[in-house]
Amino acid sequence: MITGGCLCGAIRFKVERFVGPFELCHCSRCRKVSGSAFVAGIGVRARDFHWVAGEGLVRRYEAPVREHPPGYSTAFCPSCGSPAPDLTHVTAEDDWFELVAGVLDDDPLLRPDKHIFVDYMAAWDAIHDALPRLTKQELIELRIAAYRAKAKKHRDPE
Q1: Cα separation of the two ends of the chain
Q2: pTM for the structure as a whole
Q3: Residues 18-76: pLDDT tens digits?
Q4: Sheet containing 12-15: which strands, arranged edge to edge?
Q5: Distance between CA atoms of 7 and 131, rounded to whole angstroms?
Q6: Domain 2-155 - what CATH class?
């Protein structure tokens, strides 16, 4: 089990395994939430996630929708302000959500696989690795292709 929690320790959880993706998001909203150059977000299935303490403490902020739904939301500990897990949008059809990797105590056994929204990165930021770098449009195209492949798999099971 991989453990994690907030800075003050009021919110605690365990994760059996991470499935990815493990993305480094450079959009302006993620920069503001993290107070840094990007948010490191890692995908986890809800069924692999277990609350240990503080589930009822988690607070959410829903930012206004800019272009079209869904909007941007963030979850956090009301005592220390650390990011917190947010399972609000998890559905039975899509058992997946993204967790801010910085709240993990242990190695998630995955590594970042791409930078996203690089067309919005801070002017003072620089990327010094060889990971793929996707603009907003490239990311949209990638996610549409993945959605279509998933829908086709459900329509035409082998």
Answers
A1: 33
A2: 0.88
A3: 999 999 999 999 999 999 999 999 999 999 999 999 999 999 999 888 776 677 899 99
A4: 2-5, 12-15, 49-53
A5: 29
A6: mainly beta
